[in-house]
Amino acid sequence: MTTVRIVKGLLGKKLGMTQAWDANNKMIPITVVEAGSNVITQIKNAEIDGYSAIQVAYGAIDPRKVNKPDAGHFEKAGVTPRRFLAEIRTLDADTYAVGQELGVELFEAGMFVDVVGTSKGKGFAGHMKRHGFHGVGASHGSHRNHRKPGSIGAGTSPGRVFKGSRMAGRMGQDKVTTLNLTIHGIDAEKGLLLIKGAVPGSKGSLVFVRNAVKKGA
Fold it and tell me: Within this chain, do residues 66 and 148 fall inside the same structural domain, yes or no?
């Protein structure tokens, strides 16, 4: 796959939500993301690796808890060990340097961003909650049937239930991307991004913020 765009991205931690006033004196929801301590640990180029990308690391970790391959990787890059790594494909990878620190200054207020995170786990859930099924009517002959899924097969032919049918099961804890959120503000001193709206995940969870795919840079 060929990289055809310049991507700016940071790993961060969702701190929680708050509120703020916008320019029209309207109260808006704000998600606070701490993303001020990313460092570049590797740079890939098309000649050697077949594509152009940078690898960023984020999050403090006790060096004693880092396995030997990762410890060697961080030592080669000349940076202290970090907890998380992410690769960002971007056309301008050659403009970065290994060991370079990246902060929230990559973004600016008013930019559109996409946020990738892991949704909250809901445990085992039925098909109505998990998939939005309407259930069966409450009257007209229904008897203890209100929350059943209905038919799941097609009779003798094919004589089986197709894989992937929407049924009850574990809900949440999935990779989710929320598109085209707006950056309301930036606190460069504290390394905070103030993003308008909600982002996937619980408080303290890892998120990845990048410039929006469908809105340009």
Answer: no
